Amino acid sequence: MSSYLDPVHPSRHTPYTDVPKDVMDYLRYLETIINRSPRTVNGYYIDLRTFFRFLVRYRSQAPADQPLEQISAAGLDTGFIRAVTKEEIYEYLYYLSSQRQNQPAARARKLSSIKGFFHYMTAKAGILESDPSEDISVPALRKALPKYLSLEESIDLLKNIQSDFYERDFCIITLFLNCGMRLSELVGIDLTDFKEDTIRIVGKGDKERLVYLNPACMGALRTYIDARAKLPNLRDKNALFISQRTGKRLGNRRVEQIVDNCLRAAGLDGKGYSPHKLRHTAATLMYRHGDVDMLALKEILGHEHVSTTEIYTHINTQKLQDAANASPLSRMKFSPPAPERPLDGDDAAEDRPEEQP
Q1: Residue 182 among the catalytic residues
Q2: Which of 57, 78, 89, 218: CA 20 to 30 A from 150?
Q3: Active site residue: 53, 168, 279, 288, which one?
């Protein structure tokens, strides 16, 4: 996925110059007024750039066989945007499904970017009189329970870490499984974010929260920080998790590779687990085994609304089992029917077939 984010400093990006000026203004609005994170704004940028590249080709302003990646959306004026129709948006959604094999979740996200942009152009900036996306429904999404490791799998993962920098990778897995932080949150941790037994996490939209560290996290951190201090080439001196080779802060992709390697060593690869699934695991273990209530879990995970956190109520299988056992019919046992009374005398004669001569 192309991106203008600085991989070393993900809060920075170069100007978004290859999209229409109205889109550039919208992205600045998201970043400065709505206070969306740079990563979120970058996602909107990529979605809208693809949409307008598609329109350039769809309107025959580029060869029909030219790949979208080679089409420029820069310089498209407000008149081009004002001419967008509901039918063109439908064509784009069909293109995403038929040509790019985008699943409903991806199409819903890209449609949301389009809706957000046109809402800004009509309701906020007052540049357009009507919104062509207003009545277009978002693709229906299948509600799926979050995937997570069981308690036994989590223990196996921690016991089977194999790494050239064991202290660091054990600490990464421990924080994921105990604190429920996002990948970007873990990568962005600085040494100055710690205070006694708490850590300051910067989440979505630069929202800060404090997460308490349990004894397992504290022990793993102390061991790793001691090992980190012995590295000869520390370059990002304040970054918590750094590369043993370069001394620089680890990026998102490198942490994903570390997690994949740890899962493979524990025999848990190929099951769809990832850093985000470790976040789900932390939340699930807290809820199922720690009796943590929804409001506390919401604060730990950094959710804006408790409704987001409530998905974890659906995976407490013990409560579901208790509910099933509470049925007044739960103790009914199988009882075979009483055997039929054997026939004799006249009754038996009535049921006996007639003899053939």
Answers
A1: yes
A2: 218
A3: 279
